[in-house]
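[stage:ingest] chain + small molecule (zinc ion)
[stage:ingest] validated
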Amino acid sequence: MTLRLFNTLTGQLDDLVPSDGKTLRMYACGPTIYDYGHIGNFRTFLQVDVLRRFLKLTGVAVHHVMNITDVDDKIIRNATAAGVPIGEYTARYEKAFFEDLDALGVERPEEIPHATEHIPQMVKLVQRLAAAGAAYQTEDGSWYFRLASFPEYGKLSKKDLSGMEDGARVDVDEYEKDSARDFALWKAAKPGETSWDTPIGRGRPGWHIECSTMAMEYLGESFDLHAGGEDLIFPHHENEIAQSESVTHKPFARHWMHVRFLLVDGRKMSKSQGNFYTLRDLLLKGFKASSIRLALISVPYRHQLNFTFEGLTEATSAIERLRTFKQRLTAGTFAPGANPALQEAAKKAQAEYLAALSNDLNTAEARAPIFDLLRAGNAAIDQGQLLADDRDAILAVLASFDAVFDVIEDRDAEITRRALDYAEQSGRLDDVSPELVASQSLTDEAIDALVAERTQAKKQRNFARADQIRNELAEKGVVIEDSKDGVHWKRK
Ligand SMILES: [Zn+2]
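[stage:predict] done
[stage:export] tokens:
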């Protein structure tokens, strides 16, 4: 099964296949570790995770590189304000970033290079650019890319840059289209800033040179796929292409994938609008990591996602249904044999699921056949028509769904506990929702004991006590479910 994926460079759906026939070599721009990640950042990392998981599910090996930007304008500004060296400043946010990725079930890329550990390679690339006539040094010692030397500039973003003024320069890492000018490759040291002594002078790298350097270091001069958020198309990715192709004269990345921005409550997310959320903000409000993952991946990557709390609640109930269904299948006892209708339903669900994902990673369409199968399976169990082979066939489809979506396997309680630890350590206990505090006030052992006491009370026909325990647990966010195969409980 070949993935058809939209390619920003060609403007159409192209087959995504490894050019060496074996391993798909891909680069995805990583985080700038100057603060906690917000849900917009994580939507991009999650959609790239969907891509790599789908490739692996369909038998394509992946070599995935994600950089860590640990030096740039924002980091230097914040570290200076905090009065600490940049390494100390970024270490804290890098740790937080990986904790957040783990909470969201994002798989680790094969390589995670740091910008500050590749300074000599960046310097070498600047030297090669200078030798090719594509870079020049200014009086203050900084190095700039000469846009006029690369006529293809703009081919990714499809921007018309003809009005550009030759020789005009911009030295900030992030800028708008109007600033399409010669951009900084290497910034001469300024007093008080972190800098490196190198053959091209004392200074620090610009942001764009970092990705060109590390992508080529780990994946070669030409590789299969480059991914990132849509905000990176211009100038960052355009600049990466210019820097790389000016020295290699080979296509840098063949395929470019860009994840669209999300809106929150229909508006652009911003601190001033009061609709800005880090992952941690949502966990402290009592939302589960699995719900956040599902909500952020259920709208396909090329569509704008409107993130709302209702959407999160919908994701929570979808996951509950899946988990309950799987529980019924694994805990139940089924007669031997196969029901042809269910065998057919499982086969159809699997085929439709894979077809939807192979069509530009359509996660929304991929969900539908899984829930159709869930409904058919539940109905068959209710009517005693689900047999042992059907259970196995359906569990295999659920496993294939979870290989990409990764929400059925329940890791939420542990993640919630860690979020509460974070709240305590960082003085954010006031931000924790009262429901969450209540549900965490009971240990698993205490709940087990109460559930056992309730079962005993029911046996002794002491229904008043049994109801009392059920209500007590419900108030603390613990739900009891009685079923044929025993009593189960879960935290809401
Ligand atoms: Zn990048």
